[in-house]
Every structure is written in C-alpha cells, then in structure tokens.
Write a structure and sequence with these properties.
It contains ten helices and no strands. The chain has 208 residues and is mainly α. The longest helix has 23 residues, at 131-153.
Length: 208
C-alpha cells in the first residue's frame, strides 16, 4: 500500500482553507470592549464592586477573562470605564429652580429597581465598602455630579447645596432598597414627591 505524500504546498493550502472558514473569524476589539462593558454594568449593579466576578463578566460577554486585563488593565479599570461619563444633567440646564427641583425629585423616586436599567448610583452604594472603588466613584460620579448640579444652582455655597441634593437623591435608594422601609415605598410616592420637593427647594433657596 502506497502512502500518500503531501507537499508543503498542500499543507499551506489546507491552512488557508481552514483560516477562511466562517467560524475562524477575527475578534472585533471595539465590539468586545462594548460587550464587556455591558456585562460589567450588570454585574457591578447586581453585586457591587467587591463581590463582582470578572469571570462572570467575561462569561456573560462570551470571551476570555484575560481580555478584561488587556482592554481595561484590571477589574478596577473596568469599573472606571463603566462609571466614565455616566451622569448627564444637561436636560435640567436652563430650567427655573422649581422645575429643576421637581425633576430631581422624580429622579430620586425613580430609584426603585436595582436590577433594571443601569444606575451608577446603585453601583456606588453597593460598592461603598471598597476603598479603591470609592476613589473611582468619587472621581467619576460624585464630584462630576456635584459640579453639574452646582453649575445649575449657581450662587453662594453652590457646591455644598449640590452635595446635599445628591445625598437626598441617593438616600432614596437606601431607604427603598437597602433598608426597604415601608414609609418610603412607592405606595407613598405622591406624599414623598411633595416632601422631597420642599426639602430640596429649601436647600436651593437657602441664603437667597
């Protein structure tokens, strides 16, 4: 029986055919990064920073966990990318103080479902036990949000007023989800909206 002898050209042609099969496609780095970010938003919001698993994030994104380090440097770098430019209060720009405060009250009352659309403030509260995460959250969320609110408020002590407003808004999440107090449940939205409005208007108008 004669043994079939394949030339180098045969092997090269076989390799070329294999590389052009549909399942041997190249990875799109941009698409992979976006998919990892989407998966990370879900994981960080569900678990908080410390408990979040990069293995789970990579699995949900359908890729190897090593790509998180390649694209973002580390789990902390991934959190930083997730929190980057995630707050935009420009829709409130130009509104008179009473309308701006009313909108903020609605934002505060909307913090009910931590597993729904991505909410960076949920991530911030669930990650409060991590010092390294808090440094990222402070620089990417807390300070930028205070700056945006302060620019909307204007006048004396605008930064401090903005900080208090931010505390009120984030406090609604604590009361509703973390503490689950009946007094601040959605059943009382009408009364809560009025009280929130009065409290925040008092802060905004203080000293004027």
């Amino acid at each position: 029986m004669m043994r079939e002898i394949k030339s180098t050209g045969d092997y090269l042609r076989a390799k070329i055919v294999q590389s052009t099969k549909p399942d041997a496609r190249k990875r799109n780095p941009g698409a992979t990064k976006d998919t990892l970010l989407d998966a990370a938003r879900t994981e960080f919001q569900r678990m908080g920073y410390d408990a979040a698993s990069t293995r789970n994030i990579a699995s949900e994104a359908g890729c190897n966990a090593a790509l998180i380090n390649r694209y973002f440097g580390s789990k902390l770098g991934l959190l930083e990318a997730v929190m980057e430019e995630c707050i935009d209060l420009t829709p409130l720009d130009g509104l008179p103080p009473n309308e701006m405060v009313a909108a903020l009250a609605d934002i505060a009352l909307g913090k009910v479902n931590p597993t729904g659309n991505f909410d960076p403030m949920v991530v911030a509260i669930k990650s409060s036990g991590s010092e390294e995460a808090q440094d990222v959250i402070r620089s990417k969320l807390g300070n930028p949000m205070v700056e945006q609110l302060a620019s909307l408020i204007g006048g004396d002590k605008a930064d401090q007023k903005a900080g208090i407003l931010l505390s009120i808004v984030s406090g609604m999440f604590v009361g509703r989800v973390s503490v689950d107090a009946d007094a601040v449940s959605t059943d009382h939205n009408e009364a809560l909206r009025e009280l929130l409005y009065d409290a925040m208007m008092a802060v905004v108008s203080s000293g004027t």
